[in-house]
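Whether sequence alone determines local backbone shape is best considered at the level of individual chains. When preparing material for the folding task, we compiled for one chain both its residues and its backbone structure tokens. No coordinates are needed to read the tokens, only the vocabulary itself. For completeness, the protein is quoted in full, as a sequence line and a line of structure tokens:
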Amino acid sequence: MSVRENTSLACLGRLTRLGFVRSTAERQLVEQYLKQLRVKTPSLEQRVRNLSGGNQQKIILAKWLATHPRVLLLDEPTRGIDVHAKREIYELMDELARAGLAIVVVSSEMPEILTVSDRIVVLCEGRKTAEFSRAEATEERLMAAALPRSDHGMSGPQPRPGGPGSVAG
């Protein structure tokens, strides 16, 4: 699909009248999000698959942000994109969180979790094994909580209450 079609897809109900898409309203909505998310594309009709990985991720974000969510779930938000694009995605996530959007991030990348999270919930075998604030979290503590408990009686850190903000795990 094109950048225009893909970005507006999730909120077509707001953009239609009598079953027809109001093209001016659609174009305005898409342009607003492309500007806000700093998407680089030669045209609104450009196929999303022909964009860089970072710009593809931004189009996905734009699509769901256009629905005005209160909570945004991002599963592996920077997988497969270059370092510069990752930094841009992290900056966008920070801007959105500062604007009041709750963001839940699921990631298998430890540096990503430590970079973007205010609060980290660690899961192991489908169960919560620990919770850390950003200040409490270290790679060692997260790894200890992420590994299955051994038969030697050792266990990972005990759950601790955290403050408001993003959750990663």
User: Anything to note?
Assistant: Residues 1-68 form one domain.
